[in-house]
Amino acid sequence: MSEHLLPPPRDQAIYVNYLPMPVGIHRFLKFAVPAVLWIMCALAFVWARSQYSPGNAVWETGKPVEFMGVLGAAPYPVLFTPAKDGTITAVLLVEQGKFGTQKRAAALSGQLVRVSGWLLHREGRQILELEPEDRALVRITDAAITQAPTLRELGSVTVRGEIVDGKCYLGAMKPGAGKTHKECATLCIRGGIPPIVIAFSADGSTEYLLLQSESGEAIDPALHHLIADPVEIRGVKHQWLGVSGLGVLRVRAADVRRL
Amino acid sequence: MQTLAELSLLALLAYTLVGVAFGIAFVLRGVSVIDPAASTAGLGFKLTILPGCAALWPLLLVKWLRPKRSLRAGP
Amino acid sequence: MSVGYAAIQWSKPKRRYDLIVGLAIIAYIGTFMLVSKMLWTGASAISDEVLILRALGSCGFILLHIILCIGPLARFDPRWLPVLFNRRHLGVMTFFIALAHGVIAIGYYHGFGTINPLVSLLTSNTEFASVQAFPYQLLGVVALIVLFLLAATSHDFWNKNLSAATWKRLHMSVYGAYVLLVAHVALGALQNDRGLLGPIATVLGVCTVGVLHLLAAWRERNRDLSSPTSSVAGEEWIDVGTPAEIPDDRARTVCAPGGERIAIFKHNGRISAVTNVCAHQGGPLGEGAIIDGCITCPWHGWQYKPQDGCAPPPFQEKVATYRVRISAGRVQVNARALPPGTPTDPVSARSEAANV
After folding, report:
1. Which chain B residue is nearest to residue C122, measuring alpha carbons?
2. Does some domain include residue C184?
3. C321-322 and C303-304 beta bridge pairing
4. Per residue in A73-117, pLDDT tens?
5. Domain check: are C340 and C288 in the same one?
6. Of A1, C14, C26, C57, which one is least surrounded by beta carbons within 10 A?
7. Cβ(C338)–Cβ(C344) below 8 Å
């Protein structure tokens, strides 16, 4: 009968915080407290080690750098500047914070300009965060190139990858992609930061494609909810003549689907 | 969506502001009405319960007003 | 037990407790930051803000697991009681860690933009129908609000003035917050993860919390199923066993037909019964002991006199008492609770045993 009843508590003194600690509990704690501290350290060590690399991206936050070239203002400002090897480098331009520089760039579209700011770069792709002052974007009369390269249509493609905001992915935040960065990327792209598709190929290589609408405008806001998700995109690929490293993909919102 | 979010945040802000104002009044006066044991408590205690007072102010308002009513109704 | 209030009723054990918890938190966050900074350097360094978010988030999540496991663990082994008695401080510290995580995350991911960070938080992701894209941050926000309410009402003032039952119900919502946080982690950080460590650790944590609670509930249920009762003249008396089966200055606990548990204590050869539920936080009085002539709760050391369920002066708390009798050499307790603080007449174990 009595086995149905609660057994008496263990024959062990109970702990009452305002009374001296029972010997058994004291002995237990002398072992348990250091154990807990070591376990916390061990957990932190294992968890820290299990993180993955965010990729080689750098935000040069020191002294501002200068570039000269031709400004393409719409829909996402980009500066075409001659590289040392004779090719042309496309440097995307943004403001500080999560803002595009469309407003400042509009007046100087197609002009020769000198820009200054802090460079962010990843795998040769570059984005420049302009200094806030007016002198950070000024018209000049002489530069090594005088015309923006023409954009040539390469035909229809289907790519798989992720839509990221150019600034974070190129070094402002690390990691600047993936689920935990989704809301930030959405806010950035809404604010005018260039959206870039990181397209993963079967051979392990990645392609960077600046995303535009079908008609070459800023992307359709209907696409915003797919930012940072794994997606498949059907669109028309374009290439600036002489520019390597950054292509353009023009898409309709209906042609992007979450994987 | 954005309007709805802004309205919700405004409502939350209003609730919190009323809560903080109520909370300050409550810890200074009301608390010893609903709990005589609190009448001798110091500033530290008042600051400790202030966030809870600001969050649960409608509940405390009812409690604060209730004993007065029962006093009036009592013999 | 309170007569007047203080901000925090610091005592030496509480200070020591908080110091150890503080050290554990510093050890965890420090190790995490140090190792991360050493492993990821130069161009592949992880942003400091991201590291801090990860350190705080995982630290808070681990602390919440500890908080949830202490209750059942202390039921199985009283040596865990020193961790339990100051669980509220652990809870408040967990809230502050979660708050820091939330504030930094909102500032970092939603700040510096074209709209108010809080508006961005509420509107930048509304993919509630998708598992892949689910707005996991909002789950964290709701959990943080719950943790705030718990931390803000953790002072004994709230326990007394919201009523012990309401307070207990409110603080049971920590389980709701836990479920939200598991979803927050699973739909957020774990979807970023490439390794298996995160998912395995999370599943292990959830299983530990779940299994400990199930075991504790199962053990109690098994005992609750059948405490033999006998009805005499409309009064129900529950069999407790022989007087000798109740250890000195300790209790046996039985379950009344209505489900409430009764603790039957033996002190100085006299047997008396009170409810098993402490007036403070519902701690199991039956797992306590008689110290200085008073029933002492194992959770926070609140005390009641065995003969009337009243706390010793100047304290004013009271618990329900029960009538006890000895019939045919066995202790029986009446199933009906007397109003809290009702004096009873403890029966003598020795003299009645001699009657048999």
Report:
1. B5
2. yes
3. unpaired
4. 889 999 999 988 888 999 999 999 999 999 999 999 999 999 999
5. yes
6. A1
7. yes
